[in-house]
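Retry 2 of 3 after timeout on previous attempt. Resubmitting C-alpha coordinates to design endpoint.
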Protein backbone atom coordinates (compact mmCIF):
# COMPACT_ATOMS: atom_id res chain seq x y z
CA UNK A 1 0.00 0.00 0.00
CA UNK A 2 1.37 3.40 -1.00
CA UNK A 3 1.99 5.90 1.77
CA UNK A 4 0.13 9.18 1.50
CA UNK A 5 2.07 12.20 0.35
CA UNK A 6 2.61 14.66 3.19
CA UNK A 7 0.72 17.92 2.86
CA UNK A 8 2.27 21.35 3.39
CA UNK A 9 0.65 21.29 6.83
CA UNK A 10 2.14 17.87 7.62
CA UNK A 11 5.62 19.05 6.69
CA UNK A 12 5.24 22.28 8.68
CA UNK A 13 4.04 20.39 11.77
CA UNK A 14 6.93 17.94 11.54
CA UNK A 15 9.42 20.80 11.18
CA UNK A 16 7.91 22.73 14.10
CA UNK A 17 8.08 19.68 16.36
CA UNK A 18 11.71 19.02 15.51
CA UNK A 19 12.76 22.69 15.71
CA UNK A 20 11.08 23.19 19.07
CA UNK A 21 12.51 20.04 20.60
CA UNK A 22 15.97 21.02 19.32
CA UNK A 23 15.58 24.53 20.83
CA UNK A 24 14.43 23.18 24.19
CA UNK A 25 16.80 20.23 24.58
CA UNK A 26 19.75 21.07 22.33
CA UNK A 27 20.80 19.24 19.18
CA UNK A 28 22.47 16.15 20.65
CA UNK A 29 19.81 15.42 23.24
CA UNK A 30 16.95 16.22 20.87
CA UNK A 31 18.03 13.56 18.37
CA UNK A 32 18.08 10.87 21.06
CA UNK A 33 14.84 12.19 22.52
CA UNK A 34 13.03 12.13 19.17
CA UNK A 35 14.19 8.56 18.52
CA UNK A 36 12.80 7.64 21.94
CA UNK A 37 9.47 9.38 21.31
CA UNK A 38 9.07 7.90 17.83
CA UNK A 39 9.90 4.48 19.25
CA UNK A 40 7.34 4.99 21.99
CA UNK A 41 4.75 6.00 19.41
CA UNK A 42 5.82 3.08 17.21
CA UNK A 43 6.13 5.67 14.49
CA UNK A 44 8.51 7.76 12.41
CA UNK A 45 8.95 11.48 11.91
CA UNK A 46 6.83 11.34 8.75
CA UNK A 47 3.89 9.89 10.70
CA UNK A 48 3.78 12.74 13.26
CA UNK A 49 0.86 14.51 11.56
CA UNK A 50 -1.21 11.31 11.70
CA UNK A 51 -0.32 10.76 15.34
CA UNK A 52 -0.57 14.32 16.64
CA UNK A 53 -2.69 13.38 19.66
CA UNK A 54 -0.26 10.62 20.61
CA UNK A 55 2.69 12.99 20.18
CA UNK A 56 1.28 15.66 22.50
CA UNK A 57 0.25 12.97 25.01
CA UNK A 58 3.82 11.60 24.92
CA UNK A 59 5.22 15.08 25.62
CA UNK A 60 2.84 15.43 28.56
CA UNK A 61 3.71 11.96 29.89
CA UNK A 62 7.45 12.58 29.64
CA UNK A 63 7.57 16.17 30.93
CA UNK A 64 4.37 16.53 32.97
CA UNK A 65 2.86 20.01 32.67
CA UNK A 66 6.14 21.06 31.04
CA UNK A 67 5.03 18.92 28.09
CA UNK A 68 2.12 21.30 27.57
CA UNK A 69 4.57 24.21 27.56
CA UNK A 70 6.63 22.47 24.88
CA UNK A 71 3.41 21.70 23.00
CA UNK A 72 2.41 25.35 23.10
CA UNK A 73 5.81 26.37 21.72
CA UNK A 74 5.28 23.92 18.85
CA UNK A 75 1.81 25.37 18.24
CA UNK A 76 3.00 28.99 18.35
CA UNK A 77 5.67 28.20 15.77
CA UNK A 78 3.10 26.43 13.56
CA UNK A 79 0.67 29.35 13.74
CA UNK A 80 3.49 31.74 12.82
CA UNK A 81 4.32 29.64 9.76
CA UNK A 82 0.66 29.77 8.76
CA UNK A 83 0.56 33.53 9.39
CA UNK A 84 -2.48 33.01 11.62
CA UNK A 85 -2.69 34.90 14.93
CA UNK A 86 -2.28 32.62 17.93
CA UNK A 87 -4.67 33.29 20.80
CA UNK A 88 -3.70 31.30 23.86
CA UNK A 89 -6.63 29.86 25.78
CA UNK A 90 -5.36 28.36 29.06
CA UNK A 91 -7.69 25.35 29.16
CA UNK A 92 -7.15 24.42 25.53
CA UNK A 93 -4.78 21.53 24.79
CA UNK A 94 -2.01 22.04 22.22
CA UNK A 95 -3.40 19.29 20.02
CA UNK A 96 -6.72 21.15 19.78
CA UNK A 97 -4.93 24.15 18.26
CA UNK A 98 -3.22 21.87 15.74
CA UNK A 99 -6.51 20.29 14.69
CA UNK A 100 -8.15 23.71 14.30
CA UNK A 101 -5.27 25.09 12.26
CA UNK A 102 -5.14 22.14 9.87
CA UNK A 103 -8.15 23.48 7.93
CA UNK A 104 -6.81 27.05 7.84
CA UNK A 105 -3.27 26.24 6.69
CA UNK A 106 -2.30 27.59 3.28
CA UNK A 107 -2.18 24.93 0.57
CA UNK A 108 1.21 26.11 -0.67
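Retry 2 succeeded. Sequence:
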Amino acid sequence: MKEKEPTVFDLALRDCVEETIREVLGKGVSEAFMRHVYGRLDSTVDAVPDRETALFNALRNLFGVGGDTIGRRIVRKLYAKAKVPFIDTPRKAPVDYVKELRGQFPAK
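Attempt log closed. The mean pLDDT is 83.
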